[in-house]
Amino acid sequence: MFGAMKRFGGTILDWASGVHPLETVRFISKLMTPLKFPRDGKREINAAVEIESKIRKEAEVTQKRQNVVAEPDPGVTKAWWKAFKPSQIVAMDCEMVEIKKLDVNKNQYIDMSTGIFKAGTVAIVNSEGNPILNKRIYYPESSFVTNPHTERVSGFRKDSLLNGEDFEKVKAEVEKMLEDKLIIVCGGKFMDFKCLDLNPDKYQKFDLSQFFYKIHYNPNYKGKTINDIGLRSLVFHFYNVDIQSGSHSALVDAEYTMKIFMEQYTKLKVENIDDPNDRKRYHDIFKEVKHVNDRNIEALKNEIIGKC
């Protein structure tokens, strides 16, 4: 009897520490019971082995259950932007120039508006707002429209883009960089693509204006008008910074486009989060966003100072 117990002693101690206390007490009490016949001891040892086997199997089943990764709850709606890794999200902005009409006979540009806009500068930033592309594009002197207004907005003078790179070369770099990416822009009806001769429909894109806009009801007319909230107004509203008080910068605009998307949009988008194109929501949160322009910016700055 004692030889058998010695032989199984290590096994008994191994499982005894992990079984239910009542099971342990029951087994030990049996061991302490005086045995009348040798076969009784053999029967008790066999019972111990069976209990050990049972406990080990239950422990294995429990371990397997703990290691199983829970399946996503089909009832939980996933935010649409979560389908992209952070490394797949970029923001893009372009500063454009209007190309003049070319007199092919004289091989010179005529000071005439054509309505054709091309990228003068283009910038792309990653999801952290760090620049991954910042290019200036070459145009011959006086080949695009310049006047006091365009010079103030873009900063481009007639000779500003002589040190730029070839249009097709920059376009190819941008195309490669935008492959398999979610591209965030702000306003302009995707002109940031069109001014580079890129087809917007070929890309996964999102315009902040799809979400940040105001609805105005005109009492003189039936219906409503939708006014997009521009990047300058959004940045001033959220960060009290005027990013376009002087010449616009494609890089600065791209940086703040991403900043607003990551820090504001992803927190404010609480309805129909699986649909980036949804516009059925409340607009109260945007009623306080004021339109910022050169005429009222100083007054708006003074309002902020007065509140401090």
TrEMBL record:
Exonuclease domain ranges (all copies): 88-270
Matching Pfam families: RNase_T (PF00929)
Protein name: Exonuclease domain-containing protein
Organism whose genome encodes this protein: Allacma fusca
